[in-house]
Amino acid sequence: MQAGYWIRSKPIYGGLQWQHKAQAHVIIASGEGGRAVLRLLQQQLPPQAIKVLYLPEAQADHSHALRHMLQDVLGLDLASALSRHDTAAALWLALDEVLTASRMGTRIYAAGDEAFLWQVAAQAALHGVLNADIMREQAASLARAVYCVHCKTISHHVNTNIATCSGCQRQLLVRDHFSRRLGAYMGLMIDAEEPGNVPDILEIYP
Fold this sequence. Notes:
Layout: E1 24-30, H1 33-41, E2 49-55, H2 63-73, H3 78-81, E3 82-84, H4 88-101, E4 106-112, H5 114-125, E5 134-138, E6 144-148, E7 154-158, E8 162-164, E9 171-179, E10 184-189
Parallel strand pairs: 1-2, 1-4, 2-3, 4-5, 6-10
Antiparallel strand pairs: 6-7, 8-9, 9-10
Helix pairs in contact: 1-2
């Protein structure tokens, strides 16, 4: 068994699938998450309204493919079906507006890196949406957000077993224990008992 298999707090993500009994569908994606949305759109389409909110990234912009799929292939009204945003702030504002106007029974789908998935969850929670009601697909990088239990700073895009805290500069052991509230894994000072005794740093979350 792989290490961490029995760590119950460690999230497990699957592929996106339509929830056909929903009243409407809101899809939020960033960067490589656009590929997950394209795969979802290739499934049998539900009859309810679909809204895609997309944040392209410098190395992953699937805006053109999404426009083509929604408008040319599926024949949907692009103005209502796709909302592309250039900044994260604009995306979260748009999501807030969409959820404010949504009715009960709306299903939410999220695709992107892990930190993005849990930011979606945090934003949705402000509107009473439960974690269990959000479908998630982790796209591209397995990099982690790491919460330093010593200075309370969250370091993003960590891809090694040991990471330098961006706040206090301690060397942190990246654990599999995950906080859904924080959207981050716990990081503990690895050389607290023997200062300077830090094991080899390995890239294990590419």
